[in-house]
Specification:
By secondary structure, the chain is α/β, with parallel strands linked by helices. Helices cover 33% and strands 19% of the residues. It has three domains: 364 residues, TIM Barrel; 141 residues, NAD(P)-binding Rossmann-like Domain (Rossmann fold, 3-Layer(aba) Sandwich), CATH 3.40.50; 119 residues, FAD/NAD(P)-binding domain. Keywords: Flavoprotein, FMN, Iron, Iron-sulfur, Metal-binding, Oxidoreductase. Its cofactor is [4Fe-4S] cluster; FMN.
Length: 651
């Protein structure tokens, strides 16, 4: 047991299963399945977390009925064909002493994708619309309710026969069981609606039948939101009453928060970095005080010290640390062995985990692109002929390339022109509510130290240096600078780029227009920062709404902040020019002029331009030149780090 975390590494017995520690990977969609069954890529993904020391892995939702296909890549457990894959998955996790449960699931009205471009028929207790996905469901008839109940039970039996240790009944986030619980969504007047007892009947019948069919050792738990954080959602008092009523049929309750039914409440499904770590724990503590069975909790628990404190406080018995394990599958092992300083801490950016899911592609991590690609990058072979490798640029791309190449046995030196590592990430962390993004620098810097990379600061790589040193290979990661597009200029209005604002190099004056070309964090973040300093800010963006390129939960959280700050957003406009006090914009669809008067400063968040000079200077001197990150093409930190991995693995 790790002395530093005495509570986190205590075992926990739940019916027939023993968790070796209190660290859980919660059920989360990976977008890795391709045909509704467990495939080799999903086995490799979960096996990496089991090998890294997780005590419990809960496998992503499995549909229990044909009408449960809420995405095109959901696992299905509605026929025996699912069992072979689940058996391989269970065996892979059990080989590392990891307990494994599977989620059984029906979304009800929360259908978020189309099948072959067609709107899907959604089913719910009543024909009450879902605001977020603009779905008007069909009310379930008695026969279909019975089919779905039987489907839950049959799915649990299949997962037990496949070798899993338990199942988790998903009643969280406004999905079908929660829709039956909710008197504002369940308007039925039969035995499944009306009274509180009737609204519990759907869940009671499922849980009782699963317990009867699976015997004494099989674990049956329930995931539920502590409240749905929505005016039409379940309240905390209602949820506590539900948990008390269903406790005799359960072995544990897994507490989360929010609902899929509205944009504001859905943010909590995977809360971004603006939310405090462990913020759901107090609600879990209130539920735990009502029950005698174990209570799990999840919600931005990213570090072992946070989880240990939650368990020590009595708020919960197990902590869901899903994104922490996506970012660093070996987090439990490092914490238990006394190497917590080596943990690659999740920064809750949501870009490659839930962000990938929402794009319909396999999940990964911007800091650890090996995640989801375990079959390719999980075990990189050492090189037979080590080479002398120079890396020019100490941003995320260069740092990851240096680490990867060094781990494979190359002699790697990283040169950074500035006095600190980090590149643009050092600026990104200066945006409001984005300080945690700086963790990518801290994490990569520690990896560089562990890999034995030589780091030389305040030293740009030049053609003269290369001619003198003659390295075997050069990785160019010199990044980018702010791009200033051509526009009409008249008068002497102050014009600044986003970097100058973040560095506080100018006084913006009273009224500011921020022109946003990318639709990402930068333009809205600059607008938010200036508004917080007391400036009158307008945000003009080329996209349909501010932050349109960001993952939805991050975007919606940010849009809420802009609304509360009363920042005027002008969508679908591009910069045309300015005079002394007027910014001239142009509608991107109609080409009609749009003007903003009485402006003191125009701020440009208009993308970046690659720094490419070193690539040309190195030609003819270094035999192997690789260009990565923004030097290759201006993109995001995710592409930069992936480029570093890809090139570091190939060189």
């Amino acid at each position: 047991m790790a002395a530093s975390f005495p509570h986190l590494f205590q075992p926990l017995r739940i019916r027939g299963a023993t968790l070796k520690n209190r660290i859980m990977s919660t059920g989360h969609d990976t977008t890795i399945p391709t045909d509704g069954t467990v495939n080799d890529r999903l086995v490799a993904y979960q096996a990496a977390r089991a090998a890294g020391g997780a005590g419990l892995i809960v496998i992503q939702v499995a549909g229990v009925h044909e009408s449960a296909r809420y995405t095109n890549h959901i696992l299905m457990a509605n026929d025996d064909g699912c069992m072979e894959g689940y058996t391989r998955l269970a065996d892979a996790c059990h080989a590392h002493g990891c307990t494994i449960f599977g989620q059984i699931f029906h979304p009800g009205r929360e259908i978020c994708e189309r099948h072959e471009g067609l709107l899907t028929v959604a089913y719910a207790p009543s024909a009450v619309p879902s605001e977020r996905f603009h779905v008007i469901p069909r009310a379930l008839d008695a026969g279909m309710i019975r089919e779905i109940i039987d489907g839950f039970v049959a799915a649990a039996i299949r997962l037990q026969r496949a070798g899993l240790d338990g199942v988790e009944f998903v009643a969280s986030h406004g999905y079908l069981p929660a829709q039956f619980f909710n008197p504002r969504v369940n308007l039925r007047d039969d035995e499944y609606g009306g009274s509180g007892e009737n609204r519990l009947r759907f869940a009671r019948e499922i849980l009782a039948a699963i317990r009867a069919a699976t015997g004494d050792d099989f674990v049956v738990g329930m995931r539920i939101s502590d409240s749905e954080r929505d005016d039409e959602g379940l309240t905390s008092d209602e949820v506590r009453a539900i948990c008390r009523e269903l406790e005799p049929l359960l072995d544990y309750v897994n507490v989360t928060t929010g609902t899929s039914a509205s944009a504001g409440a859905a943010v909590h499904i995977v809360a971004p970095m603006s939310w405090t770590p462990g913020y759901v724990a107090p609600a879990a503590a209130r539920i735990r005080a009502d029950l005698s069975i174990p209570v799990f909790v999840t919600g931005r628990i990213n570090q072992p010290q946070e989880a240990d404190a939650i368990i020590a406080s009595g708020a919960a018995d197990v902590c869901g640390m899903t994104r922490a394990l996506i970012c660093d599958p070996r987090m439990p092992e490092k914490a238990q062995s006394g190497h917590s300083g080596d943990i690659r801490a999740c920064i809750a950016c949501n870009q490659a985990c839930i962000g990938h899911f929402q794009l319909g592609v396999p999940i990964s991590c911007i800091q650890h692109p090996e995640t989801g690609r375990e079959e390719i990058y999980g075990n990189l072979a050492p090189v037979e002929n080590p080479r002398r490798v120079f890396v020019a640029g100490g941003g995320p791309a260069g740092m990851k390339a240096a680490v990867t190449a060094a781990k494979r046995g190359h002699d790697v030196t990283l040169f950074e022109a500035a006095g600190q590592l980090g590149g643009q990430a050092r600026l990104a962390q200066e945006l409001p509510r984005r300080a945690e993004f700086g963790g990518i620098i801290t994490n990569l810097a520690r990896e560089i130290e562990l890999a034995g990379v030589k780091v030389v600061l305040n030293t740009p790589v030049t053609g003269e240096m290369l001619a003198a040193e003659r390295p075997d290979a050069l990785i160019v990661a010199t990044g980018a600078i702010p791009f200033r597009p051509p526009y009409e200029e008249a008068g002497d209005m102050q014009v600044a780029d986003a970097w100058q604002i973040l560095r506080r190099e100018i006084n913006p004056g009273r009224r500011v227009v921020v022109v946003d070309w990318r639709g990402d964090w930068i333009g809205p973040g600059i607008a938010e920062a200036l508004a917080a300093r007391g400036h009158d800010v307008r945000l003009a963006t080329t996209v349909h709404h501010a932050a349109a390129q960001l993952p939805p939960y991050v975007r919606d959280d940010l849009l809420g902040v802009l609304a509360r700050q009363e920042i005027g957003v002008m969508p679908l406009v591009r910069l045309f020019g300015h005079d002394d006090s007027t910014v001239f914009l142009q509608h991107v669809v109609t080409n009609e002029p749009v003007m903003v008067n009485d402006v003191d400063t125009l701020v440009l968040a208009t993308g970046h331009a690659s720094v490419t000079g070193l690539e040309s200077a190195a030609r003819g001197i270094v035999p192997d030149i690789r260009v990565i990150g923004d030097s290759l093409a201006p993109r995001t930190a995710e592409e930069a780090v992936y480029d570093g991995l890809r090139v570091g693995a190939a060189i």
